[in-house]
Specification:
This protein is of the alpha/beta class. The chain has 15 helices and twelve strands. The chain folds into two domains: 5-251, 3-Layer(aba) Sandwich (Aspartate Aminotransferase, domain 2), CATH 3.40.640.10; 254-388, Aspartate Aminotransferase, domain 1, CATH 3.90.1150.10. Bound molecules: pyridoxal-5'-phosphate (PLP).
């Protein structure tokens, strides 16, 4: 990145048209025209780099990808319709039948389903290590292992993994190291600095930041992205130009939004930690977090998600949710609006109870994505709901 993060987020823009528009226009077009037969031939043979068809590239998606690449320190990338299409397409593009993945046990619910239900159809298997047992990771690696996959912080339990340590292990065993950086955003953490080969985002979350559109992106080493691009170009999970335009605009304000989200989240975490109706609180920048030192080392701020447990298990958790007045009960996160969720009955309900407990998703666990309302109003809402429990 040649300029500062905030500057690149605002000033990275594809070339202006003859109209000299200041703000990036939207290119709602499915295809692009050729000068003549030779132009068409050269474009399809990739002798020329240009837009052909919006399933391959489009000016809006290219601008969005360029920005994410600069923010993450990546060589190249491709934008997807959703975070999950980015996760799936990345694996489908890079792995063959018989290949093996080593992943942290705590991953996003749909990623977990991909590992357990769908990838095995193509004879791609996954072994898991617990986030607090990274020392067992190397024993899971076999000659068939191709990928090391993690999220940090994890969804929804807000565990933190030592990205640099994992990068060293991946390098030693020649694995493709993939990090889902959704919870941190590129503003708080750049996994490529710690050895990641590829970084994935659900742009639906804090990158959009206003709960409007779905999107995803994979960025990293050019030779790997080339495979991801060819797979996506032929199978069609492309991000729409409209959503790309929205997301690229959102990146212009990511830094200021992230600062405020994290400031509010830390205050909420501190409030909850002191509350006598709460069992435990997990937030990367609370000193009580098991990986506080690592979080401080690899993240600029602690993120906007706090996980906590209401005393009294599932009944208390339900009562708490039912008494919330202002905060939204919703499945999204990273929105301007504070969102409270109960992972055991929603995003992670497809996991068995045993699997849930293993990844720290107890029945009473509540995940709060702290928004940009005045933090005192958020705390007041949580306080009145806790009083009722
Ligand atoms: C939401 C989420 C995804 C999936 O993204 P979608 O845009 O909903 O498909 C993947 N990983 C993490 C960590 C997420 O929070």
């Amino acid at each position: 990145m040649s300029k500062h993060f905030e500057t690149e987020a605002i000033r990275t823009q594809i070339n202006r048209t003859e109209f000299q528009e200041h703000s990036m226009p939207m290119y709602l077009t499915s295809s692009f025209v050729f000068e003549d037969a030779e132009d068409m031939r050269a474009s399809f043979s990739e002798e020329k780099e240009r837009n052909i068809y919006s399933r391959f590239t489009n000016p809006n998606t290219s601008e969005f990808v360029d920005k994410i690449c600069k923010m993450e320190g990546a060589e190249a990338g491709y934008a997807f319709a959703t975070g999950m299409s980015a996760v799936f397409s990345t694996f489908a593009a890079l792995l063959n039948s018989g290949d093996h993945i080593v992943s942290a046990r705590s991953v996003f619910g749909s990623t977990h389903s991909l590992f357990t239900k769908f990838l095995p159809k193509w004879n791609i298997t996954t072994s898991y290590f617990k986030v607090d047992e990274v020392d067992t990771l190397e024993s899971l690696i076999t000659p068939e292992t191709k990928v090391l996959y993690v999220e940090s912080p994890t969804n929804p339990a807000v565990d933190v993994l030592d990205l640099e340590l994992l990068g060293e292990i991946a390098k030693k065993h020649n694995l493709i190291y993939i990090v889902d950086n959704c919870f941190a955003t590129p503003y708080l953490q750049q996994p490529i600095k710690f050895g990641a080969d590829l970084v994935i985002h659900s742009a639906t979350k804090m990158i959009d930041g206003q709960g409007r559109v779905l999107g995803g992106v994979t960025v990293g080493k050019s030779e790997l992205i080339r495979e991801v691009y060819l797979f996506a170009r032929n199978t069609g999970p492309a991000l729409s130009p409209f959503n790309a335009w929205v997301l690229s605009k959102s990146l212009e304000t990511l830094a200021v939004r992230a600062e405020k989200h994290c400031e509010n989240a830390l205050k909420v975490a501190e409030f909850l930690e002191k509350h006598d109706k709460i069992n435990k609180v997990k937030y990367p920048f609370l000193k009580s977090h098991a990986m506080y030192e690592v979080a401080k080392k690899q993240m600029k701020l602690g993120g906007n998600v706090v996980a906590f447990e209401v005393k009294g298990g599932i009944d208390a958790g339900r009562k708490f949710l039912n008494t919330i007045k202002m905060c939204s009960l919703s499945a999204n996160l990273g929105d301007t609006r504070t969102i409270v969720t109960h992972p055991a009955s929603t995003t992670h309900s497809k996991l068995s109870e045993e699997d849930r407990n293993e990844v720290g998703i107890t029945d009473g666990l509540v995940r709060i994505s702290v928004g940009l309302e005045h933090v005192d109003d958020v705390i007041e809402d949580l306080q009145q709901a806790l009083t009722a429990v």
